[in-house]
Every structure is written in structure tokens, then in C-alpha cells.
Amino acid sequence: MMVDAAGHVDAARHVASPNCDDRPEGEAVTLLVIHNISLPPGEFGGDGVERLFTNGLDSDAHPYYLTLAGVRVSAHFFIRRTGELLQFVACAKRAWHAGESAWRGRSRCNEFSIGIELEGVDNAPYADVQYRVLAELTRALRSAYPIVDIAGHSDIAPSRKTDPGPGFDWPFYRGLIG
Fold first, then answer.
1. How far apart are alpha carbons 101 and 156 in whole angstroms?
2. How many domains does the chain have?
3. What pLDDT, on the 0 to 100 scale, is given for residue 159?
4. Can you tell me the distance from the alpha carbon of 161 to that of 35, in angstroms, rounded to the nearest whole number?
């Protein structure tokens, strides 16, 4: 897996999200943020996440989607339970994944982080293939950027978020990335 100068990963299926903008001038990527998402909640394999990140989610297609009407979010990457890797935002750009957040005394984590969404929910185990793809992606991103920290969404926004949740096996993941 390779990352080019613009921050595109060769192994990913690219789906452009409009929900991004430029990082502040000279801002280095030093943080990876691990999230989870499934749309509708708890259902896997559909196109809800892709539609949400590209502003094409039909709010009438499911009762939960009404809560997302008008929401503009994205992540750099999404790893499906099958191991498929999608990239919505080039790493050189700022994806809108962290919201109000802080890490090690710095606010606005979107400015200096890359967001990776795993298809899942807080309390269910993730698929082994997701960990393998996440580990390979992590190694590629660490080779391309001066990443020094990896955190969960719950770590950077503890009063708002719980993901990736207790279903995420941090020791297993850390063992895979070395």
C-alpha cells in the first residue's frame, strides 16, 4: 500500500467527498483518529456511509436518516467489514471527521489528523480483515506523514463520542502495527 504526494492511497477505491477543505498552511499530519460508523446503525454492507460522506443520503430512506438531514461530514478512509478500503478525502486535505475535539492540549483535531472509519458499532467485534487493512494503512500513512499518535474518536471528544468503543481491540491492533 502506497501513499502518493497528494495523499491518495493506491489500494483504495476513491470516492470524492465535497466535505473537506484545505489544511492550515504548514500544518503537519501527526494524529490518526479511529472511528466507527454504520448506516443505518448496526446494519452493515449498504451504501449509507458512502451516501452520507458524499451528501447523497436520502433522509426519507430510513427513520434514523432524518437525524442526519443537512449534516456535512466525511473521513479520509472507510474500511468495510469485508476489508474493502474506500478513500473519500486526500490526506493532504482536511476531512470533517472529528468535530469539536482536542488532543494533547490542541483543539481542532481535523487540522492535524487523518480520520479512519471502520464499519461497525461500539460493542461488537470488528472483523479480522478490517484490522489487517487498518494496520497496513497505518503503516503506509506513518511512512508518508510524521504521525506520532493514534487515538479513538472517544479520546479526542470524550464528552460527545464513544467510538470505536469496547469492541475495538487496541492491543491486537497495536500488535499488528508494531
1. 5
2. 1
3. 95
4. 9
Going by C-alpha positions, the residue among 116, 142, 120, 110 that lies closest to residue 1 is: 142
Q: What's the pLDDT tens digit per position in 76-99? A: 999 999 999 999 999 999 999 999
CB neighbour list of residue 74: distance below 8 Å, 6 or more residues apart: 17, 19, 20, 53, 88, 89, 95, 96, 97, 115
* DSSP track, 126-160: PPHHHHHHHHHHHHHHHHHS---EEEEHHHHSTTT
Provide the domain limits for residue 144: 13-177
- The yes-or-no answer on residue 50 being catalytic is no
**Out of 25, 27, 100, 117, which one is annotated catalytic?**
117
In a domain, 46, yes or no: yes
SS3 120: coil
Query: How far from 151 is each of 82, 83, 157, 165, 173, CA to CA, in Å?
Result: 23, 21, 10, 12, 12
pLDDT digits (tens, 9 = 90+) for 13-23: 999 999 999 99
Q: pTM of the entire structure?
A: 0.97
- What CATH number corresponds to the domain at position 137? 3.40.80.10
